[in-house]
Amino acid sequence: MSLKHLNQWVPVFANIAVVIGILLLLFELRQNTESMRAQTRNELSFGMMDINLSVANDPTLAEAFLKDPKLRSPSEELRVFVYFQAMFRYWENVHYQYREGMFDEREFAAHRERWKGSFQVGDNTIRVYCTLPRGWLSAGLSRELEMIMSEVGRSCEGVEGSLDAFE
Hints:
Layout: H1 3-56, H2 59-66, H3 74-99, H4 105-121, H5 123-131, H6 139-151
């Protein structure tokens, strides 16, 4: 094989190497995306466990949940309110991760059903949500929660604010 003939094949081999490099890069990106999804799901699971454990590990918070809100002390009311603020921030993170493509429709639908359940049976959930300052939650999550409340036949109309106890 002459040098001239070899020089003609060098660009072909170089192009093949570039194509192989691009394919490997795409493979690595896909693996990285799958890894990020798994990590996101794991972190969100731990976040929800932490929120739930805060009630399970604190009998005074659990008792505060069970009391009629009108009979709670200001301290108990604050603890319940802060718990729900943490829960809403968790929901906001879930909603953000969904919008960013870290959840598929099926997985997000499961979260949304849990949120719906919280609004169906949770007067505390409604009361705290309805008394949060507008703009405290992202516009996207606020729209989602308003749709959920509409679906379950609930609204903020006539909800007494829990913020009064802290002012």
